[in-house]
Amino acid sequence: MTSTDRPVIAAVDGSSHSAEALDWAAREAARRGLGLTIVHALAPDRPSEREDRRREADELLARSVRRVAEVAPSLSPSTLTPLDYPSAALSALSHNASLIVVGSRGLGGFRSLLLGSNSLAAASMADCPVVVVHSGPDGEDEPERAPVPSDIVAGVAADESSEAVLEFAFETAAARPGARLRIVHGWTMFSSMISGGPVFDRDAAAEAAARTLSELTAGWREKYPQVEVVREPVSGSASRTLVTASATAALTVIGRRRGGESLGLGLSPVAQTTLTHALGPVAVVPC
Fold it and tell me: What is the β-pairing status of strands 8-11 and 99-103?
């Protein structure tokens, strides 16, 4: 199965957050020329309740299909109602998906939580990139939020994990004509020291970070010449920079290391903070 055969999956549960995620998924599938599958998982329950819940699921999926017809008329979405817990269903479906899109919170979440358990589980365990679409405080974008942002922001580390993040970020930017890609690399004097770089000379450490970022991104501009690229080596907190940038970004892209899924260790502190506090959509890419 090639990447063009793998659909974008949108998880819906009837909440306003999942409706916004559905809109985002539909537009992204249309941009990339991919199919769209709308999923509503039915958690196992008593057989006596299953028929009513199945009927409610069918109604929700029918409404979702109608919504997609308004947002992205070129799509003909399919629907699925797996009998499983949402996080487990999405994890299983991720093996044959290009992208999973979820809302930041669902119907079962407490309003005080910044990120729902299913969203966090999907971002931590999926085999494909997961986009978490953050909403305003009441499930709606703030009315004063302004013109639709076009920047794609990617947070990269000084190691091989950056390849997958950069690939996804460049693909996303290329699908948006005129989009600018901002590549952020956070550094500190401590990180310079442990990488064998300058220890006491801040200017030299800054230059070393800039060189590292240039090396990480070498070759990508040739592959995607249509994408405007801005490199941003940042001294200090990378997560603070990414959270701030997310307020005016169409998408913020971060990485997640494979191998820690069973223990919930895939998300680094920077990724966890960015995903939890971001002010716009965040893509978590397994590396």
Answer: parallel
